[in-house]
Amino acid sequence: MQLTPLHIKGGRALGGEITVQHSKNAALPVIVATLLSREPVTLHGIPRLSDVYTILDLMAHLGTQHKWVGDNSLELHTPEILNTDAPYALVSKMRASFIVMGAILARAGQATVSMPGGCAWGPRPVDQHVKAFRALGVTLTEDGGNFDARREGSLNGHFVFELLTVGGTHNAILAAVLGDGVVVLDNASIDTDVVDMVEFLNSLGADISGAGTNSITVRGVPELRGGSYTVIPDRIEAGTFMMLAAANRCRLRVRNVRPDHLRAVTAKLQEMGVQITEDGNTLIVDATVADLKPVNVTTQSYPGFPTDLQPQMSALLATVPGTSVVQDPVYPDRLTHVAELHRMGANITVSGYTQVIQGAKLHAAPVKAADLRAGAALFIAGLTTEGETVIDGVQYLNRGYERLAERLRGIGANVLQHDLALAMD
Ligand SMILES: CC(=O)N[C@H]1[C@@H](OP(=O)(O)OP(=O)(O)OC[C@H]2O[C@@H](n3ccc(=O)[nH]c3=O)[C@H](O)[C@@H]2O)O[C@H](CO)[C@@H](O)[C@@H]1O
Ligand SMILES: C=C(OP(=O)(O)O)C(=O)O
Predict the structure, then answer these.
(1) In CATH, what number is assigned to the domain containing residue 59?
(2) DSSP 8-state secondary structure symbol assigned to residue 23
């Protein structure tokens, strides 16, 4: 579908309040995890995003029936697995879909899943997923761009991840939930999205302990029941809006947040001079009280500063006088925002995964998002400038931000876009 670019007339005073959607990166694995139950499941807090529509297409192929009940609630039911393959046409659209391997394997004993391939900014290997499966007793072969996974009986054993991987931890847990084995995963991810999927699975009768620590134990159970669950708020979207407020030197109430999920982000913005106050599940972000200072930022796994906010932070720092250094060792190639920010007058020098950013006054320009968070960096930058910034590549923004133009208009922005949720309804 050809989408109209996002048109932003920046430089207007922004303020008021904005409500954060529920988490894309938590919702996707929770949706996939419903494959483990034969019973109907109702999920609340599912954002209307193209990634959600993509995973639902893949799940329809596997045998899941779904129905939206209200704006952000979804009923899912997989009485039988009808196909055990996840074809390239569906998996290649979205890397997160690779975790269907664990779920199909658990439910059907065999899964053929296309290799996810690279993404917009560089390689994203799945070697840890593969090593975990093999260590836990799965026979896994590669053929013609597909992984074929088979298990005889239940998964059993102990695997130590060589690095922290969110998706690898999801995949291994999903594969181990059904059966009568015991699986211990060490050096597991402690990411909020792993904890959310585990809480959901346990609410259906799974026996998983240790989520949120580096050692997770999954004891197989014969089956899961149905149920309902609400996905956590989106900490990446919340962080995006916090940086937007800082870049605009305005005061914004950011609603529907888990402040405890945002400690590293809050601390870095406070170090810059942004005042942040907690009011229950609202953060009041005030960038009007002091001149902002440059800072140095390095991405890490949760609870460190997230790579998914690195481009947005870079856009913010591009507006702050002085020298900031941003490093993204998690994804060293995640730099597609840089050339586009240069078009808007940003002064960023790149060496390896290090950006040296000299703050400057940005100006409007036609730009193109090449991936989701690069797109977010561009709308943050565009909102700070006088004149009209036209952002192409809106399909990437629709992967991660629900009804973006409408919500930005709600805080005073002059933004035009054909929002996805409206287009799909
Ligand atoms: C849909 C979703 O939730 N995506 C998030 C998830 O992606 P995803 O789960 O794909 O990211 P991982 O946590 O697996 O990746 C973390 C690091 O481990 C490396 N790695 C990962 C797996 C593997 O088998 N081998 C390997 O070397 C990656 O290259 C990266 O450097 O976590 C990333 C890191 O927080 C976020 O940027 C993504 O937004
Ligand atoms: C990179 C992201 O998602 P994915 O892992 O699906 O590419 C993201 O949410 O920023």
Answers:
(1) 3.65.10.10
(2) P
**Atom 21 of ligand 1, nearest CA residue:** 165
Q: Are residues 268 and 212 in the same domain?
A: no
Cβ–ligand 1 distance for 168 under 6 Å, the answer yes
pLDDT at site 331 = 96
- Spacing of C-alpha 214 from chain mean position: 20
Q: For residue 304, which ligand has an atom nearest its CA?
A: 1
CB 411 within 8 A of CB 252: yes
The Cα–Cα gap between 192 and 235 comes to: 9
- Report the distance separating Cα 96 and Cα 85, nearest Å: 15
Q: How far is CA 271 from CA 43, 287, 291, in A?
A: 37, 12, 12
Intervals of the chain under pLDDT 70:
1-2, 117-119, 418-425
Do 250 and 101 belong to one domain? no
**253 and 395 belong to one structural domain:** yes
- Kindly give the distance from the C-alpha atom of residue 237 to the centroid of ligand 2, in angstroms, as a whole number: 12
Residues 134, 166 within the same domain: yes
Domain check: are 79 and 91 in the same one? yes
Please give the torsion angle defined by the CA atoms of residues 136, 142, 147 and 149, in that order, rounded to the nearest 10 degrees: -40
ipTM over 0.95: yes
